[in-house]
Design brief:
With 222 residues, this protein is α/β, with parallel strands linked by helices. The chain contains seven helices and four strands, in the order E-H-E-H-E-H-E-H-H-H-H. Strand 1 (2-11), helix 1 (22-35) and strand 2 (41-51) form a beta-alpha-beta unit. The longest helix is centred in the last third of the chain and has 33 residues, at 148-180. It starts with a strand and ends with a helix.
């Protein structure tokens, strides 16, 4: 019988945001167990860390890992970043021969693929952070007055734009060649979905979303 120990992690800030709370993690884990797990299976326990910041000290993860080592169960998480946002921490877990883990949103990924994904995600976060800082510096250089509520709003808007630009670049290698080959938006969306690429909110691609991505790429690639 396949045994699992479920681990969930959420920050106090994320819990109030759609797609990142505990309910979303439970949904993904249930989908994995119902559609992708070996049968029969048994969930031994569920551990949850609620943190005020980033990785930090995670006592419930330590308890979950210890149970996995004792029982031979597999640690199951909804997304890879629920374990850690640091590729170094993911690598340490992979080197622990007494612990195996599965990621619900990537049900067929092996350890090598998960390691690569963690490294790419870390690079993306670093790039977005650098781009946001550069955009703020450019705004100040243009003489934009920053301060108070307007400052916060501007920073938030710049961050949103930087995130959108980074996501567009991430799929550019798929959507641009297909569009140049004359493929319709609907077919490009189907290719993204077939490749397992999710939208920013973790959903399926639609033609309208592909159109917005192409419009954004046209502004940055020309």
């Amino acid at each position: 019988m396949q045994k699992y120990v479920i681990y969930r992690r959420v920050s106090t800030k994320e819990q109030g945001r759609s797609g990142l709370g505990l309910e979303a993690q439970d949904r993904d884990i249930s989908l994995f167990l119902e559609g992708f797990s070996a049968e029969p299976y048994d969930v031994l326990a569920t551990f949850t860390d609620v943190l005020s910041g980033g990785d930090g000290d995670r006592p419930e993860l330590a308890s979950a890992l210890e149970m996995c080592r004792r029982s031979g169960a597999t640690l199951l998480v909804s997304k890879l970043d629920r374990l850690s946002r640091k590729v170094s921490a993911i690598a340490v877990l992979m080197e622990d021969k007494r612990v195996s883990f599965r990621v619900a949103q990537m049900p067929y990924a092996d350890n090598f693929q998960l390691h690569i994904y963690a490294a790419l995600a870390e690079q993306e976060r670093q790039f977005i952070s650098a781009r946001t800082k550069a955009a703020l510096a450019e705004a100040k250089a243009r003489g934009t007055k920053l301060g108070g509520l307007r400052d916060k709003t501007m920073k938030r808007n710049i961050a949103v734009q930087a995130n959108a630009a980074a996501r567009a670049e991430k799929v550019a290698g798929i959507v641009l060649p297909l569009r140049e080959a004359g493929k319709p938006l609907r077919e490009i969306a189907d290719h993204l979905n077939s490749a397992g690429v999710q939208t920013a909110r973790g959903g399926q691609w639609e033609a309208s979303q592909v159109k917005r991505i192409l419009e954004r790429l046209s502004r940055t690639h020309h």
